Amino acid sequence: MRWPPLLAAGLIGCGTLSGARPLEPGHHEVGVTLGGPLLRFGGPLPLPNVVVGARSGLGHIADRPFDLGYGMNLTGLPFGIVALHGDLGWLALAQNGAVPALTVRNKLFFTTNLVAGNKAEGVPRGVWAVDQIDLIASWKVGGSVVYGSLGQVFDLGNPQLVLVPGLGASIDPGREGGVTLQPELRWWAINRSSVQRNVQWVPGTPGAIGVHLGLAVPLGSRGDR
Known about the structure:
Elements: H1 5-10, E1 28-40, E2 44-46, E3 50-61, E4 64-73, E5 82-93, E6 101-112, E7 127-141, E8 144-155, E9 163-170, E10 180-188, E11 208-219
């Protein structure tokens, strides 16, 4: 049985919990993110990725917080595909009035079918790794944070220039420091022409637009998001 090409192509283009603002030391959150690159399937539909994840504040560098994020994509598990990610983020600049805060975040994605058993029959076994570096400018508005980002994605087996701009928010609908909704729009590989085989992405070329929605729950006290 071969991997569904749609699934294998989209696991890396998944959403993670918003890291626009690193958590303060000792602060934590857990959550889930839904969605992925848009497909042409009777209309634009997001790839149904389901990612569970968490973030933990670790400490300070130059008096500014840095944190650790980690999680797993559940979508591939029924097909014998394990997809994990981990990331580190640091607040390089604090917000100063209208001048945004700037966060540097590095994410590593690992995907493997080595545990697939007969589900991967006829498919080469291996491990695939992708590194994503994001620069995130963010503004705190009330109890919420809005942000714009620019990322570079490196396929560690075949590194190329693959740019990923994005827009998103961490919206606190209740009291500040509570549950947050995290919508995000990303344009994966905006500088690359898509290779159309079994999958028809939106817009098709260049790259693929991705839509994600996250829900995050704080554990204990927390700082800026």
